[in-house]
Structure formats: structure tokens, C-alpha cells
């Protein structure tokens, strides 16, 4: 079955959310997704989009997504950050992930980004091997830091 990689439209967001929820289950966080369709539409298709989105679509349905946004590195300049690359479980191993990643890398190039970065869980061996196979550098020297909304309100107001 062939696949088409294209930029997402608002009508793709319900299926996008399904894939995000599928990823949360795979990553052992089934209750962690709090975003909804309306928020994804507002944040991705409003006046100042917070993210970009490619979809992988077969003749039947959307089988994968690559969601990204831009950030800025004081050392390197503009960076494309790949938040999630998801291919539904039944369609993995068919090259769709590589095609989505190629679209992301082309976008980084067209947007004059010096880096394209992402994260992978240390136990996710299939993804780690996939990224190693394309020559990505896996940096184990950084620790992720997060402050959630209910936490940061208490921090900056103190």
C-alpha cells in the first residue's frame, strides 16, 4: 500500500489525537494526554500556530504523524524540534516513519535550521535503532527538566 506525506489540515486533527493517545499507551502513560481536538486546532491552525504537522496517509486513513515546532539555540540559531513521530502499530515497518522523518528534515532545511532535534525514551529500542540507522547522534549527557502549569504558578508568584 502506498502512502502520501502531506501537511495536515484541521480535518486531520481527530485522527491525530487518536495517534497521540496511541503513543501515550505505548509509552506507558495512557492517562497523560490532556489536550483535546479543539485545543490542537486552535494551537496549530490559529493566527500564530504553535506547531506544524505532517501526516502519512494511505488510501484508507492517516497512519502516522510528525508534529514539530521551532526553537532557538544560543549556540546554533534556529532549531526544528520534532515533538513526536508516530506510526500506528499495525503500519510500522513499512517505511512510513522514514518518509515522515524525511519530510521533517526537508522542512528543517527549507527553514534554514542548523539543527533538527528530538528525544527518545531510553527503553524504546526499536526507535533508538531506527535513529542510529540514519546516523543521528544520541546524546545521553542531558537531563530533561519540566515544570508543570500547577507548579510554575506557585514558583513565579512566590
Describe the 3D structure.
The chain has 158 residues and is of the alpha+beta class. It has one domain: Aminopeptidase, CATH 3.40.630. Helix content is 35%, strand content 23%. It has five helices and five strands. The protein has helices at residues 13-26, 37-45, 96-110, 125-133, 149-156; strands spanning 4-7, 52-57, 62-73, 77-87, 115-117. It has a five-stranded mixed sheet. The longest helix has 15 residues, at 96-110. The mean pLDDT is 94.
Give the SSE map:
Elements: E1 4-7, H1 13-26, H2 37-45, E2 52-57, E3 62-73, E4 77-87, H3 96-110, E5 115-117, H4 125-133, H5 149-156
Parallel strand pairs: 4-5
Antiparallel strand pairs: 1-2, 2-3, 3-4
Distance between the termini: 57 Å
CATH topology: Aminopeptidase
The secondary-structure element order is EHHEEEHEHH
In the CATH scheme, the class would be Alpha Beta
So how many helices? 5
- Most strands sheet: 5 strands, mixed
The CATH superfamily appears as: Gcn5-related N-acetyltransferase (GNAT)
Strand content: 15-25%
Find the structural class using helix and strand composition: alpha+beta
Shape: globular
Helix content bin: 25-40%
**CATH architecture grouping:** 3-Layer(aba) Sandwich
**Largest beta sheet: strand ordering:** 1-2-3-4-5
Low-pLDDT parts are none
**Based on DSSP secondary structure assignment, what is the total number of beta strands?**
5
Task: Look at the structure and give the mean pLDDT.
Answer: 94
> How many structural domains?
1
Using only C-alpha atoms, the radius of gyration works out to 16 Å
Keywords: Acyltransferase, Transferase
InterPro entries: Acyl_CoA_acyltransferase, Diverse_Substrate_AcTransf, GNAT_dom
Family: Belongs to the acetyltransferase family.
Enzyme class: transferase
Amino acid at each position: 500500500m502506498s502512502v502520501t506525506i502531506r501537511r495536515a489540515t484541521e480535518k486531520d486533527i481527530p485522527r491525530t489525537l487518536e495517534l497521540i493517545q496511541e503513543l501515550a499507551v505505548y509509552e506507558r502513560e495512557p492517562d497523560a494526554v490532556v489536550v483535546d481536538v479543539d485545543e490542537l486546532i486552535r494551537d496549530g491552525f490559529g493566527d500564530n500556530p504553535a506547531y506544524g504537522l505532517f501526516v502519512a496517509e494511505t488510501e484508507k486513513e492517516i497512519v502516522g504523524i510528525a508534529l514539530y515546532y521551532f526553537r532557538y539555540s544560543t549556540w546554533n540559531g534556529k532549531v526544528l524540534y520534532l515533538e513526536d513521530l508516530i506510526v500506528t502499530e499495525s503500519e510500522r515497518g513499512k517505511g512510513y516513519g522514514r518518509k515522515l522523518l524525511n519530510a521533517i528534515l526537508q522542512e528543517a532545511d527549507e527553514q534554514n535550521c542548523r539543527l533538527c532535534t528530538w528525544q527518545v525514551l531510553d527503553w524504546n529500542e526499536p526507535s533508538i535503532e531506527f535513529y542510529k540507522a540514519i546516523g543521528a547522534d544520541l546524546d545521553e549527557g542531558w537531563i530533561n527538566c519540566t515544570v508543570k502549569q500547577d507548579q510554575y504558578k506557585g514558583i513565579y508568584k512566590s
